[in-house]
Amino acid sequence: MMNKVFPYCGFMLDSARHFIPLENVLKIIEAASVCGMNRMHWHLTDDQGWRVEIRRYPKLTEVGAQRGASCFWGEDAYENNCGFYTQQDIKRAVAFAREKGIEIVPEIEVPRHASAMLAAYPEYGCRRQDGDGVNGQPYKYGVLTYAGVFPNLICAGRDESLRFLEDILTEITELFPGPEIHIGGDEAVKQHWRRCPDCRRRMADNGLKDVHELQRWLVLRVGAFLKVRGKDTIVWNESLAGGMLPDNFIVQHWLGNDGETREFMARGGRVIISDANDYYISRTYFALSAHRLWRAGVPENARGYEDKLYGLECPQWGERITNPERMEYLLLPRMAITALKANGRAGTWNACVRQLDGLKQQLAYLGLNWAPREDWCPANAQDGACSSPRKPNAGCRACRVCSRSAIS
Ligand SMILES: [Zn+2]
What is the CA radius of gyration of the chain? Predict the structure, then answer.
């Protein structure tokens, strides 16, 4: 258990993989505020969709927000593939959230997860080479209709690509008045950069020894651009692979690179905990029971640096979440537990459950789809003794212990 009050207490919604209608976003903001959250990290761009209007580049949403039937592991292929938030919508969400004590942290992915962006503006991707099949012509990007890790990166070599990025971030900083902007930086597979003559020239000109250092160079440049505009920059922990980052950066740790995150903390860096095993609330309750999230302590890599922990956040990725009912089911109660923890108020498991019951009652007027108690995997909460009010295996559909006791 963690006994600490975090300055940053957040949750993440992924509107890129499946569009979440504005009214549903507002309802969740209201619920999050009552639970005690002070940040909403909003994942607005990815390979599978670009969801925020940028006035200077209208094709980002004309092309990037449109997607055909999509296959994400057999979930509904036709629901919420298209759509975006106008700048008016964003202003409404930001104002509503601020009224409720929540700052929205927008995430614009740099440099990867850029397929939808490059589907709209392929000229800002890397120049393709012989052997790529298109002899230096702009590669044909598309808004992707399936999940995975793709190599489509914004070109770090050409100045026009950097200006494009900075134009976008200028509109983003004007739309979101909060103290932080998230620029992603995870899972960047860099084979395009390795082959692109512009990226290679950039590396040579700046004495960068590999593509990881090129990513760091780009991230530093974007961070400096945002700093001038009064913003701190949040990145996923992979962005430390090319070297340490200065103190206008905040690292969100989800998986791997433990040593680098630890070193960052040792040097005084601020870190947001979002360990994938304990806080990814897009996972089913079978994979991450409510009790496990409640129980999760300070991760191994942060021991001894508890005072450097800046935030706690539960991200929800949207690949398998095609509709708001599913989003709410997976968020609640786990988002509420995260909020209680981040405010140092979770208490014992029983005390936590009582508070969750209270919050559910208090929020009943919103009509949200809370996961019923028997779906939280209560068996895991009691050291193997199933506390489900129903018979084992009757209510707790996904629980390992319940299904085992049904067999024995
Ligand atoms: Zn390039």
Answer: 22
